[in-house]
Design brief:
By secondary structure, the chain is an alpha/beta fold. Helix content is 44%, strand content 19%. It is built from 15 helices and 12 strands. The strands form 2 sheets. Strands 1, 2, 3, 4, 5 and 11 form a 6-stranded mixed beta sheet that branches. Helix 3 runs antiparallel to helix 12. The protein is globular, with a radius of gyration of 20 Å.
Length: 334
């Protein structure tokens, strides 16, 4: 059984069934409405969800209500792994997923999270919107998925319940939750931490109950899911960047007319720009709020020490079957 299929549960299967595209009956003479589903794991206050709602709003407006998008946040249609399975079968039409989960299908995408590859999100956008856009699209096509854009999942930092993390040695003895992303796992193991993979929807409880001591995420996710309530130590490590691929089922794409495909692409571009803008603004906002909160302990980690300790990860990834992609990526960043 693969990591993708492990994520399926009875609830997920029922949710996927309910998420099948539907044609709603309308009064005689009125045009039928097609309803598509869009699932993701973020909280309703997260920029990811707000951008999904914007995408749905544009689709509805541009089609005169003929096509509607039902947005389901907080893993209502299943976790990210099961959403990807449902996307490939057409049971779910769209998902704003994570880089880690998506790498189970397209392993190259995990390389975007090489340690300290990007100093900021804008540097990453130049590559995923430019020279690597078609390369990744070709890889997604092989697994029945169409990428509509790469949203921002931010520069990542570490939170935990035990102590400030200033240097890699401070991670020893801590259990750190990571997404099911081989890159993140490799980074934290190179830093000496024990890792455990837990669904994001179950992370708060896992931290609260001490199943794991800490985790890593952009500040926006730490805030919107209230992780700071159970992890008062927030260490600014900036150890990697991640995207949130906005993905569409190729089966759904095949059902659309050329005109409706253009509308979907246009709506995705607008929603993606909004998400990126909001994520950037919220990162700055929460950095200030966290520093001003006396209940939290914020520290700037020694990034040079983290960079040195994780350098072996880059060399190891250059030796993978898709090492040429990794080489090209590193060279492009310079």
């Amino acid at each position: 059984m693969t990591d993708i299929t492990k994520g399926l549960s009875r609830r997920t299967l029922l949710g996927a069934g309910l998420a099948m595209p539907a044609v709603l009956s309308l009064p005689r003479g009125a045009q039928a409405q097609t309803v598509f589903s869009l699932g993701h794991n973020a909280a309703p206050t997260n920029p990811r969800h707000i951008a999904c709602e914007k995408f749905a709003e544009i689709i509805k407006e541009k089609t005169g209500g003929r096509i509607a998008i039902r947005v389901a946040p907080s893993e209502q249609l299943g976790n990210e792994a099961s959403l990807l399975t449902s996307l490939r079968t057409g049971a779910v039409d769209f998902t704003a997923n994570s880089q880690g989960s998506t790498s189970a299908l397209v392993p190259e995408i995990a390389a975007l999270g090489l340690p300290f590859l990007f100093s900021n999100s804008e540097a990453a956008f130049k590559l995923v919107d430019g020279p690597f856009k078609d390369v990744l699209a070709a890889r997604f096509a092989k697994v029945g998925i169409r990428p509509l854009g790469y949203w921002d999942n931010g520069i990542r930092n570490i939170s935990n319940s035990k102590r400030a993390i200033n240097v890699p040695e401070d991670l020893k003895g801590l259990k750190i939750r990571t997404p099911p992303d081989p890159m993140t796992i490799d980074i934290f193991q190179s830093l000496g931490a024990a890792t455990q993979q837990i669904s994001f929807g179950e992370l708060y409880v896992a931290l609260q109950q001490g199943v794991v001591d800490g985790q890593e995420n952009p500040l926006t996710n730490i805030a919107s899911s209230k992780i700071y309530e159970v992890n008062p130590y927030i260490s600014i490590t900036g150890h990697k960047w991640e995207s949130s691929p906005f993905l569409m089922s190729n089966i759904t794409w095949g059902r659309l007319s050329a005109a409706d495909r253009d509308i979907v692409v246009e709506a995705a571009a607008v929603a993606g720009a909004l998400q990126r803008k909001m994520l950037g603004e919220s990162e700055a906002k929460f950095a200030a709020e966290f520093k001003a909160n006396p209940a939290l302990k914020i520290n700037e980690a020694d990034k040079a020490a983290f960079r040195k300790a994780s350098a072996s990860v880059v060399d190891a990834w250059k030796k993978k079957p898709f090492g040429d992609f990794v080489e090209q990526l590193v060279k492009a960043v310079g």
